[in-house]
TrEMBL record:
Gene: LOC100183251-002
Limits of the Methyltransferase type domain: 47-138
Recorded GO MF terms: S-adenosylmethionine-dependent methyltransferase activity
Similarity section: Belongs to the methyltransferase superfamily.
The keyword Methyltransferase belongs to this UniProt entry's keyword annotation: yes
InterPro entries linked: Diverse_substrate_MTase, Methyltransf_11, SAM-dependent_MTases_sf
Keywords: Methyltransferase, Transferase
Pfam families with a match to the protein in the record: Methyltransf_11
Protein's recorded name: Uncharacterized protein LOC100183251
GO-annotated biological processes: methylation
Length: 287
C-alpha cells in the first residue's frame, strides 16, 4: 500500500510544507548510540528508508560522510532532490523490504515515521543484512500532543494523543486506521519485533511549532491515513455508490480544534496556535 501514497504533486507538497521538522536532539541521540565511543568523527554511511521529502535526512546528514535516502514514491524522491542542500546526500527510489545496498555496509539504517507502512519482518531482515556488525537501526516518529491559542494559552487541549488518534480513526476502513494506532503507540509493535538483544527507546523530546488552522488542514491532508480514506471514497464515486459531493463526510481536524478551543472568528488567518508533538526514538544494535 505504501507505494500508492504521496504519488501526486499536491499531496507531496503538503507533506513537505506542513509536516513538522524533527529536533536536532533526535539526531544527536541516535548518533551517540551509533558511535559506540566518544569520537566526533563522521560515520561512513547512513541508509534511510521511507525518506519522504528529506526532513529527517537533513538533520542526520552532518554526521555522515555519505547518506543514501530512499522512498517508494518517485514524487517524494523528486521533491527531496529539488530541496537537497548536501553534496554527500543522494536520493533514489527504493523499498524498505528489498534495499538496494550491499551487505554489511551501513553504520545506520534510519526510518522516520514510515515503519508503520512496512512489511516489518522483511524490513528487519533487510536492515540486519545492510548494517555493519554492531551497526545501529533507528526508528523515529512523532505524534500530536497538544494545541493551544498563543494569545490565550488557557484555551488548549492536551492529552496522550488520544484525541488526534480518535479523529484519524474516523477515516477507518478495512483496517486502514491500524497504521495510526501503531504511531500513537510509539511503535511499541516495532520495538517488540526487533529480535536483537541490545535495544532501547527514548520518548521525552518534543517538537514545538507555531501553527495556523491552514497548517492543521495541510498536515491532515499529508497523512497517509487520510489519503487512503479519500482514495477509498473516490472509488465509491466511480462505482456510483456515493455522490462526488460526499467524498469527505467526516469532520475535518481544524474544525474539531476550533470547537475544542472555542474559536469563533470567521477570519482563520488571524488564529495563531502553538502545537506540541511528542517525539519517540527506537534504537537497536545489529548483531
Amino acid at each position: 500500500m505504501s507505494e500508492q501514497l504521496f504519488h501526486d504533486n499536491e499531496t507531496s507538497s503538503c507533506y513537505d510544507r506542513y509536516r513538522p521538522e524533527y529536533t536536532d536532539d533526535v539526531a544527536q541521540y541516535v548518533i551517540n548510540y551509533a558511535r559506540k565511543s566518544q569520537s566526533n568523527d563522521k560515520l561512513d554511511l547512513m541508509v534511510e528508508v521511507g525518506c519522504g521529502s528529506g526532513q529527517a535526512t537533513n538533520i542526520f546528514a552532518p554526521f555522515f560522510k555519505k547518506v543514501i535516502a530512499t522512498d517508494v514514491s518517485p514524487t517524494q524522491v523528486r521533491h527531496a532532490v529539488e530541496g537537497n542542500k548536501w553534496d554527500h546526500v543522494t536520493y533514489q527510489t527504493g523499498s524498505s523490504e528489498k534495499m538496494p545496498f550491499q551487505d554489511s555496509t551501513a553504520d545506520v539504517v534510519l526510518s522516520a515515521l514510515s515503519a508503520h507502512w512496512f512489511d516489518l519482518p522483511k524490513f528487519l531482515t533487510e536492515a540486519e543484512r545492510v548494517l555493519k556488525p554492531g551497526g545501529c537501526l533507528a526508528v523515529i516518529g512523532y505524534f500530536l500532543q497538544s494545541v493551544a491559542l498563543i494569545d490565550n494559552p488557557a484555551k488548549m487541549f492536551s492529552d496522550d494523543g488520544s484525541l488526534f488518534l480518535n479523529h484519524l480513526l474516523s477515516f477507518n476502513f478495512d483496517g486502514n486506521a491500524s497504521k495510526t494506532v501503531d504511531v500513537k503507540n510509539k511503535y511499541a509493535n516495532v520495538f517488540q519485533a526487533i529480535p536483537w538483544p541490545e535495544k532501547q527507546r527514548y520518548d521525552d523530546f518534543c517538537i514545538e511549532r507555531d501553527w495556523s488552522l491552514k497548517d492543521i488542514e495541510g498536515l491532515e491532508t499529508s497523512l497517509g491515513t487520510f489519503q487512503n480514506y479519500v482514495r477509498h471514497r473516490l472509488e465509491k464515486v466511480k462505482s456510483g455508490e456515493i455522490m462526488e459531493s460526499k467524498v469527505i463526510e467526516v469532520e475535518r481536524l481544524k474544525d474539531k480544534v476550533k470547537k475544542l478551543l472555542q474559536i469563533e472568528t470567521d477570519d482563520e488567518d488571524k488564529v495563531t496556535l502553538k502545537a506540541v508533538f511528542n517525539e519517540f526514538i527506537l534504537v537497536a544494535r545489529a548483531p
